[in-house]
Amino acid sequence: MINHRNNDCKPHAIITQNLSFRILKLNANLLLILLLLAPLFYSHAQDLSTISGQYAAAPLEEVILDIEKQTDYKFYFLDSWTRGITVSSSYKNESLNSVLQSILDNTTLNYYILTSSKRIILLENTIVYDELPKGFFGNEEIVSANSNSQDRNNAPPPTFYNTTKRTKREYDVAKIGKSDPNNLQETYLLTGRAINSKTGDPIQDLAIRVKGTNQITVTDVTGNYKLELPAGYNILSVRAMGIESTERELIMFNNGNLDLLMEEGLQQLDEVVVEADAFKNVEEAITGSEQIDSENSKNIPLVLGERDILQVAKALPGISSAGEGAMGLNVRGGKTDQNLVLLDDAVIYNPQHFFGIFQALNPFTTKGVDIYKGAIPMEFGGRLSSVFDIRTKNGNEEKVSGEGSIGPVTANLALEIPLEKDKSSLIVGARGAYADWILRSLDDEALSNSNASFFDGILKYHNKINEKNEVKATAYYSRDAFSITSDSLYNYDNRLFSVRWDHRINDKTNSALIVDNSNYGFGIDFDGETNTDFNLDYSINETELKYKLRTLLNDKNTLDYGGSAKYYSVNPGSIEPDGDQSDVNSQFIDNEQAIEGALYVGDEITFNDKLSVNLGVRYAFFAAMGKSTQRTYENGMPKNESTVQDTISYSSGENIKTYGGPELRLSTRYLFTPDFSVKASLNNSYQFLHTLSNNTTVSPIDTWKLSDLNIEPQKGYQASLGFYKNFKENEYEVSVEAYYKKMENVLDFKTGANLFLNENVETQVLQGDGKAYGVEFLLKKKSGQLNGWLSYTYSRSLYRFDSEFSEERINNGEFFPSNFDKPHDVSVITNYRFTKRYSISANFVYQTGRPITYPIGTFRFNNSDFVAFSERNEFRIPDFYRLDLGLNIEGNHKKKKLAHSFVTISVYNVLGRNNPYSVFFVTDDGEVKALQSSIFSIPIPSITYNFKF
């Protein structure tokens, strides 16, 4: 009901209802008469009333009653409009207009004064129009009720909306903003956040389409979205995989916010493996990004039936490894140390178990990973090639649930425990291996006599404190222990924790404060037959504080800005005797310390529906600190014992050397059509950490080295250009992307280098240039009985180490292939679903054999035989190819079951291809012979039982 304080008075007929600009139960002629007569009743200029008063959190209705007492005016409104609104202001002899504008400023209410009848009409969201739009009666005349009124010929017309148009509504019609008669526009900006109503998690990649148009947007990683909508009535169609599709009606009166609380969908999904939103690949401005969902990777047949998002990543264009069983990933021709791998914002230095065969991540607690290999977001830095942003799921906040698996090598269990319903939860995951039997079946005599085990555990706490505050905390630990020979036990471990506080400052600004710590270490315990027993250790530790913000400045600009600070502490290595009988001497290398920091700011600029640009700059800073002893060498001379010029001792905390500089981040997207776009990016970056290794593949004894007085940071520059097209209502995705990357100060080892436990490691390494370039092709079918993808990459990765001194020159100073240079890389992932319960999967991989250095002859010198080797990496081992098959059987889908099951029966390397892992050379009776070792040279069958409750 409309509230009017005087019972003798009735509501004036010109009042509009609260849903829109509509004027009800008036025919066009009556409307015309009322508008023509409006100036007789309405005039701000004639009002001479003044108001005085002091209000401290006073209800708006009380303030209105006070104004009525001080004037002859009566107010008309609905009680529900003013409920919960308070006023805290003071006025002294101020005009009625200024007081009304003040008390209604931060509300959705407008007002209309009829001076002659002493009435004030409040209106929710809308305003009263005293001028009809052009062509309202089918002609071009403009019927004006006030010649002095604002000229609204170019403003949007009033919205006439029939409340009975849609009889069934899941949600009420949303009213956004309130009309401003001095700033009427044809379009307004809608912003908001999509949230899972069950878990409270933000929903990423939710597709929001303006019904009846081709206008589409998707939510970002924090669930935020923005849309420019026409003034007046709109319908949004909202959908995403695993989310119940719905429609939302809304009326745009001005810029405003609408959060979308979404329900989870219960329908059976046909999509498998890597799944991105239907429009994200075309619409976002970022080049070279991929997304893998852990749940949807379960149908891909991998070795020993383990679900593994890092192995799936290798099937995507531009991502590979040095070989089967090699640890680490090579992205767009970069080294394994050039990837920033994050688990819930904290760095994980070695995310793989068991020689790289398994990931060190529990698949049942892992939600997915966002991979950036082209345009890296500004908040990330410190690596040249890529970012793997791995996210852990939030626990179930309603009931205890869990998921587990039992396979031939590993057992898994994850529990989700609600702590406070619909608010906080805990998720606990544990995973262990019993891998000795598989080692005994490998085609390697040394490995067949070995043993290995690994373990990883994770704990995550999530609390949605309120609509503006959310806290997440993660703790993780993993450990590997293996013995390749009977006298040596190798072990390595990762430990990390992170705490993240997400805070919505206001409707336009979100922030995140993050504190994290990471530690990686390895050790060797040697127990031999002689008195040479020892314990060897190495570790790197980092602690980081990061604060980032995202502000929606307006409908054209979204600002990202923030900063981070990180402290490193590295134990470069130590060796101690094991037992009193050991003859080994203790040796300790001085710890390394450093500080790394960054500040960044960037703008996501939307010029129009077709063109958007992400432009930003990140300033990176690094300072190596004491306590330390550093050498200086003669300028222009090789770094060796004979060229040492001075030895400098630095006290604890003293600055040794400072590096840094700006990093440009630029990416742009142009939409030719809603399903076809072109993107380009350009960026540069600094990397202040290096790995020291003289192995062809990453091993647990590789060490991380900080930049210092003699080892400079690596620098990288990358440009990329890509075309992206969707077909057949987004069922198919096609993309072609080319890139060129230049690198400076990359590390490699000198021939015969001794890297570990070396106090002057700079004398054993070289720093040179690198370049990588390639073209990546991806064809993906996302739905239907047959789905999957085909990827092909042509790429080259080359390095050059040139100097006027032969000891610092490799291959005569010419570019040569890196150890992981593989020009041709093809992956085919397919899944065919017979029914909702039965499907088969196949995985085929082909790669060019990686480079190798061969002996090409022998010679005799001083009565001794020597081997002459080719130029470094001049030859290649045989090409690699492998076919895997899998049968997936889901249990029945009855709702009332103790647990739901999923069985995977797979055969890895069906063809029994004896793919070489490495090629090495031995001398037998004076003859040099080439031998090869393989990891899996026979078909490996497995069966894995998964259950979920």
Automatic annotation (TrEMBL):
PROSITE patterns: TONB_DEPENDENT_REC_3
Membrane topology reported for the UniProt record: Multi-pass membrane protein
Domain named TonB-dependent receptor-like beta-barrel: residues: 464-910
Domain TonB-dependent receptor plug: 305-382
Keyword Ion transport tagged: yes
Annotated Gene3D superfamilies: Carboxypeptidase-like, regulatory domain, TonB-dependent receptor, beta-barrel domain, TonB-dependent receptor, plug domain
Pfam families per UniProt: CarbopepD_reg_2, Plug, TonB_dep_Rec_b-barrel
Regions crossing the membrane: none
The keyword Transmembrane is annotated on this UniProt entry: yes
InterPro entries attached to this UniProt entry: Beta-barrel_TonB (IPR000531), Beta-barrel_TonB_sf (IPR036942), CarboxyPept-like_regulatory (IPR008969), Plug_dom (IPR012910), Plug_dom_sf (IPR037066), TonB-dep_rcpt-like (IPR039426)
UniProt KW keywords: Cell outer membrane, Ion transport, Iron, Iron transport, Membrane, Receptor, Signal, TonB box, Transmembrane, Transmembrane beta strand, Transport
GO cellular component entries: cell outer membrane
GO molecular function: siderophore uptake transmembrane transporter activity
Annotated localization: Cell outer membrane
PANTHER family per the UniProt record, alphabetical: FERRICHROME IRON RECEPTOR-RELATED, FERRICHROME OUTER MEMBRANE TRANSPORTER_PHAGE RECEPTOR
Family: Belongs to the TonB-dependent receptor family.
Protein name: TonB-dependent Receptor Plug Domain
